[in-house]
Amino acid sequence: MPDSRNFYINGQWVAPATANDLDVINPSTEEVCATISLGGQADVDAAVAAARAAFETWSKSSKAERLALLHRVLEVYKARAGDMAEAISTEMGAPIDLAKTSQVGAGAFHIQNFIRALEGFEFEQPLGDHAPNDRIIHEGVGVVGMITPWNWPINQVTLKVIPAIAAGCSMVLKPSEIAPLSGLLFAEIMDEAGVPAGVFNLVNGDGAGVGTMLTSHPGVDAISFTGSTRAGIAISKSAADTLKPVHLELGGKGANVIFADADEKAVKRGAQHCFNNTGQSCNAPTRMLVERSIYDSAVEIAAATAESTATGMAAEPGRHIGPLVSQAQWDKVQGLIEKGMAEGARLVAGGPGRPEGVNRGYFVRPTVFADVSNDMTIAREEIFGPVLSIIPFEDEEDAVRIANDTEYGLTNYVQSQDGAKRNRMARRLRSGMVEMNGQSRGAGAPFGGMKKSGNGREGGVWGLMDFLEVKAVSGWSPEDA
Ligand code: NAD
C-alpha cells in the first residue's frame, strides 16, 4: 500500500506539493485509521496537465483497446475485493458483510455492465436512410473532474471512472475526504491494471479546496459530481465561468407508496430498505406512504422491524447496521429526530441518542415516526440516517400528490399487486427511477434524478453518453469509412 498521503498523478504516486494533513476517522471506534493530504492548486494543476496530455492519445484508442483495459481492471478489482471491503468498512462504517456483497459488489457489477454497454456502442452512427452522407460521431468530452461522496464510495467511483475510460476521456478524481481509502486502493487497482499514465489521476482534498479548483479549472472539460444538493449548486456556479457541462447526482427523499393490496412483506421490506447502509443512501425509501385501511398494521410492522434491527461494529460479520459516518452526520441526524418529535410526529421506535449500552462510535437507533405530515421537516429534508417517516394516504390521487410534493425526484417505490395501478403510478411519479414490488432495476438501467436530485444518468449507455460529445457530420463518404 503506498503512503496514504500521496496522490496518483501521471501513473506515479507523488507526494503533495504542500503538506496539509487530515485524519481519517473509523466511525465505529472514533479512532484515527489513516492520514491523507489535502491537495492544493499545484497538485490539481499537475493532475490536470497529466490528464490533458493523456487525452491526446487515449481519445484515439480503439474500442478493442478500451475493452481490453476494462477487462483487466475488472480482473484486478475482483482480486482486490477483500482489501476493498475492508477499506470501505473502516472508512465509512458499512458492516463488513454489506461492504463485501453490496458496496464492493456494486463496483464489479458496474464494470461488467459498462463493458457490455461499450461492446454494443457504435461511436459513429448513420443519421438515417434519408441522409446517407451524414454521420453522428461520438467522441470523449475531454478531461473530466470527478467528485464523489462517502456513502457508497466505490459504487460512485466506478460509475464515473469506468464509462469515462470507455468514452476515451482522461480524468482527475477527488474522492470524499471522509472516506478516501477506497479511492486510494482504486488508484492502485488502476495502476496494476495498466491504465496508461495520465488517463486516471487522483488528488485528495476537501470540497472548498481541490473540489473548487477542479470545478473552476480551465483545463477541465466536464464535471461529474455525486453528493449533496447543496454542493451540487455550489459546483454548478463554480463551473459556470468556464461553461463546462456538470453532471449531478444529488440527494433524495424517496416515497414508498404501499397500497392496501401490496404483498404481505412490503412494509417490512420497505423499512429494512430504509435502514440499509444505516440510512445513508440517496435512494433510500424514507417516506413510507401507506393506504389508510392498512395504516395501523403497517406502523406496527415498521416499528417491529426497527426494534429487531441490530446495530454493531462495522468490522463484525453479520446483518446488523453500522454507525453513521461521522460526528457531524450523527449530530445532524440527532437534530432531525428531535425536530420530528417537536413538530408532533409520533415516535413509535428508536429515538434520540445511541442504542442502549453503546457509548462510543457514531451509532444511532433505527427510528420510526408515524402520523407524519408531508410538510414536517423530517418529511422534507434528507436525513441520511436510519429514520423512517410514515404518512397515511386516502387513494391513488392522494398518494401521487404527496409523493410528488418534494423538491427531490430520485427514486420512488410502489407496492401493489395490481399491474395496471403500478403502471399508472410509474408514469405519474416525478422521479428518475420508479421501482416496484421490491424489484430492483436491471443491469444497464440509468441511475439518476429529476428536480433537485440532479440531471445525470449513470449506468449503461446513458452513463457513457454523460462523457461523450456528439458531433454531426455531413458530406461523409460511407465508402471510405
Ligand atoms: P457532500 O456534497 O458533502 O460531498 C460530496 C463530495 O463533494 C465530497 O467529495 C466533497 O469533498 C465534495 N464537495 C463538497 N462541497 C464542494 C464544493 N463546494 N465544490 C466541490 N466539491 C465539493 O456529500 P456527502 O455528504 O459526501 O454525501 C452525501 C450526499 O450525497 C447525500 O446528499 C446523498 O443523497 C448524495 N448522494 C447522491 C447519489 C446519487 O446518485 N444521486 C449517490 C450517493 C450519494
Quick structural overview:
This protein is an alpha/beta fold.
What does this entry look like structurally?
This protein has 481 residues and is of the alpha/beta class. 39% of the residues lie in helices and 19% in strands. It is built from 15 helices and 19 strands. The strands form five sheets. A seven-stranded mixed sheet has the order 14-15-16-13-12-17-18, with helices on both faces. It has a five-stranded parallel sheet with strand order 9-8-7-10-11, with helices on both faces. Strands 5-6-19 form a three-stranded antiparallel sheet, with no helix packed on it. Helix 2 packs across helix 6 (181-193) and helix 9 (266-275) packs across helix 10 (295-307). The N and C termini lie far apart (46 Å). Nicotinamide-adenine-dinucleotide (NAD) binds at residues 147-152, 156, 174, 176-177, 206-207, 211-212, 215, 226-228, 231, 234-235, 249-252, 282, 382, 384, 410, 449, 453-454.
Radius of gyration: 23 Å
**Average pLDDT number:** 98
The helix content, as a percent range, equals 25-40%
- Largest β sheet strand count, sense and barrel closure: 7 strands, mixed
Shape: globular
Q: Tell me the distance between the termini.
A: 46 Å
Percent range for β-strand residues: 15-25%
Query: What is the β-strand count?
Result: 19
The ligands bound in this entry are: nicotinamide-adenine-dinucleotide
Strand line-up in the sheet with most strands: 14-15-16-13-12-17-18
- Helix/strand class: alpha/beta
Unreliable stretches (pLDDT < 50, length at least 5) are: none
**Total number of helical segments?**
15
